[in-house]
Amino acid sequence: MSYSLLELIGNTPLVESNILNPNPNVRLFFKLEGHNPGGSVKDRAALNMIRSGLERGDFDKHSKLIEATSGNTGIALAMIAGVYGLEIELVMPENSTVERVQTMRAYGAKVTLTPADVGIEGARDYAEGKVRNEGFTMINQFANNDNWRAHYQTTGPEIWGDTEQRITHFVSSMGTTGTIMGTSTYLKEKNPKVQIVGVQPKDGAKIPGIRKWPEAYLPKIFDKNKVDDIMEVSEEEAADMARRLAKEEGIFSGMSSGGAATAALRLAATLDSGVVVSIVCDRGDRYLSSGLFG
Residues in domain Tryptophan synthase beta chain-like PALP (predicted)? Predict the structure, then answer.
């Protein structure tokens, strides 16, 4: 059986922790989103945002698309825009890893780097200026309902089915918050008792892919009522756990996945019983130049 590239997005593996899980009465699973063709969970949202936008007529092949990104969404958008024959400019802080920049350019996107000291907020401001002044169309992952709906339609049902409807806790790092919003919405519909745990960096911690947003930049798709608890992790915890996931579980991922796993293990240790699922949002190969692994 053969598939088109876009048909390979989703249906990622769910693997059980055999080493790191601290509690024999709890089953802990990692959902390996790096198995998507673009290498991250963001393939899901990017596909839904582009496909739905085209279907609605929000943009077409003559449009100039733009999006601010910290990395994974940009790679996914570059890949999928290329498949659809769309022109897209991706805006990132200049301290983004070289692997991410080069991957986006390989897929045919224009990449613009903004000053590191203004972070992703500065990249968002730049993109919004191009929309106002130069006729660009923004994908706007932070306010685009097609972002979270992708996870309502795919990630949530996959987890529900693969755990045989036994999931008790879902753990996800929070960036745009699309993953946690859509998955929470689906799982809560199936079983309101499922607990949703979001992961944020501690004050001052810099963990790629996880943010504690200033109020003015809080994603419009975020609904605090869909998250039961928020755990904070340090930069050191996230990095150490990413290395442990690779070395001890054979799961090669980035720091945001390490942050989520840190929270999931912390949670599992407190439970009498349960089934915990933690998102491993990407692959570790796009962090090799960052020094995370050596």
Answer: 7-282
CA distances from 71 to 74, 267, 272 (A): 5, 28, 38
What would be the CATH architecture of the domain defined by 5-35+152-287?
A: 3-Layer(aba) Sandwich (3.40)
Q: Is 179 marked within a binding site?
A: yes
Residue 2 pLDDT class (50, 70, 90 cuts)? low
Is 112 assigned a ligand-binding role in the annotation?
no
CATH 3.40.470.10 applies to domain 42-138: no
Residue 177 annotated in ligand binding: yes
95 annotated ligand binder: no
pLDDT digits (tens, 9 = 90+) for 134-191: 999 999 999 999 999 999 999 999 999 999 999 999 999 999 999 999 999 999 999 9
Which of 42, 69, 53, 172 shows the shortest CA–CA distance to 127?
69
Residues 258-277: pLDDT tens digits? 999 999 999 999 999 999 99
- Find how far residue 77's CA is from the centre of its chain: 13
Tell me what the mean pLDDT of segment 104-112 comes to. Answer: 97
Q: Each residue of 211-250: b (16+ CB within 10 Å) or e?
A: bebeeeeebebbeeebbeeebbbbbebbbebbbbbbeebe
Ligand-binding annotation for 175, yes or no, is yes
CB 151 within 8 A of CB 178: yes
The residues spanned by each domain of the chain are: 5-35+152-287, 42-138
Q: Are strands 14-16 and 26-32 parallel, antiparallel or unpaired?
A: antiparallel
Active site (catalytic) residues:
42, 256
Strand-pairing partners, residue 92, are 113
